Amino acid sequence: MNRIEPEYTTHEDYFGNFIGWILPFALIIGIWFFVFKRMSKGAGGGAGGGNIFNVGKSKAKVFDKESDIKTNFKDVAGLAEAKQEVEEIVEFLKHPENYTKLGGKIPKGALLVGPPGTGKTLLAKAVAGEAHVPFFSMSGSDFVEMFVGVGASRVRDLFKQAKEKSPCIIFIDEIDAIGRARGKNPNMGANDERENTLNQLLTEMDGFDTNSGVIILAATNRADILDRALMRAGRFDRQIHVELPDLNEREEIFNVHLRPLKLDESVKSEFLAKQTPGFSGADIANVCNESALIAARKKKNVIQKQDFLDAVDRIIGGLEKKNKIISITEKKTIAYHEAGHATISWLLEYAHPLVKVTIVPRGKALGAAWYLPEERSITTKEQMLDEMCSALGGRAAEELIFGKISTGAQNDLEKVTKQAMAMVSIFGMSEKVGNVSYYDSSGQSDYGFSKPYSEKTAELIDKEVKILIDESYKRAKQVLLDNMDKHSKLAELLLEREVIFSEDLEEIFGKRAFGTPEGLDEKKIDPKTEEESKNEDNETKAV
């Protein structure tokens, strides 16, 4: 019998060995490539992003001549003077020969300065829509990066692109992010990157040809902290102040924001403008939107006048808190406190007359009052004293009626203290301190933590401030003592209704001896509760 011996043969899998050897390296390379691509997307913004080395490229958004910006000067209501200035800038770009043929030089830059919400960015958008030239839009914070030298590099790249597309406009929003005054930081070396960016911006603004057709617009609401070199002629030649709108401008802004709304016939922009003193354009837009939401919440088909008034109340005072637990004693204290404010404001000549007062909690306040301030450009000492007296009416009423005071006057005391301090140390309204002002409106003072006056003067200022407040408080108590019965009647009415209006004060005190301000006599407010209003709306629909 022949025995068969098994034979063993080894075959090597070269392909498998190759895959096993190359796979770890391929995995590492793949992960590295993925991370590299992600980094390049995050770092290479603006014109030429695509790899990590473009981190120094400008991140400005470019809107060319065929841009889809639909905003134009017709959409900018109010701001007549500011709009005229920027319209002239657009004319510089469209027809530069009309100005240069006489030897004039086209301005290099314009700085839009004003409080938040007044329309600075909107004006810049309108310029972009009207100019029909390339428009570079960038925020001041876009220049600031964690890498050293990136800010300066982005400034250089931005101006390089702008020169290539001349004539054009560069818009830098919130320029205070990089334009702060140099040398004011107490931490040595901590602000070098921002200062380097500012230095490069200053160099670029004063480096290109005067008539190259590149105009810079910038916006800020903190012009007082900007560097002096940035503000000088030859860089930002023009400073365009965009202030809070006055009565006529508010009416124009309301007309713009009321266009898309379904309104009741009783809603008039003139009336609404009178009820919103001190409101910015953004506030007015918010009022219109909030009124639409309130009307929709009440299932109305159109927005009525009362909805706008409710919207103003909500924006100023906050949301009503009708379920907040308040004891009877606290409610009575709040009623007499608010009635004290209302009484004095109605009886003094220069105090703002009351529009509405409520003891229904709103936001953090347990009670609230709405006044219709007179719009004036300057304020006299007598007007300020009347306003201080009115603000102290709540604290005076608590002391006279209950013989004790509460924490409810904290906001009033804060306001009065600031006003008295301003009268003495800023406006020169104290005979003993004299006609001096310890305030630098330019914001370039080097006072730091030290005061610009001696300790003896500081003591005198403190004494004068206390005298002003004490005299106003005594005067408030005297006015309430002279009208104690009417004040108590008003407070009891407030306790009963929780909300009272100017016509209720007129019934108790009679017409104001100094006349009714324009707009207050037109304020026809329905004093019904929200529940009654809902019932009436339902009945109207049923009919």
UniProtKB/TrEMBL annotation:
Residues annotated for ATP binding in this entry: 114-121
Annotated Gene3D superfamilies: 1.10.8.60, P-loop containing nucleotide triphosphate hydrolases (3.40.50.300), Peptidase M41 (1.20.58.760)
GO molecular function: metallopeptidase activity
Subcellular location, record wording: Cell membrane
SMART domains per the UniProt record, alphabetical: AAA
Assembly and binders: Homohexamer.
Designated name of the protein: ATP-dependent zinc metalloprotease FtsH
